[in-house]
Please model this.
Amino acid sequence: MAVDLSFYISPLSEEIRDEGRAEGEARGRAEGEARGRAEDILLVFDERGIEVPDGIRDTITGCRDLDVLRRWLRRAATADSAEEILDGDRPA
Model:
């Protein structure tokens, strides 16, 4: 019994695969950017000699909202403590 595989080489299937690939790449870039920004925040604290409790470290590294991470990075430059950067921005 022969199986019809024509769908897998059709222009429609190529388009579907290309869309899925593009979505995956975009998601990967966004996750990488968020991880990088979280690392930057922790680097600022390290450079300033500010201790970051594990819970705050987990909050920072677990955040994927680039706007929130940007805000935290700015605050990290002048904050007296790691807790201070969250200032009501703790994500759900």
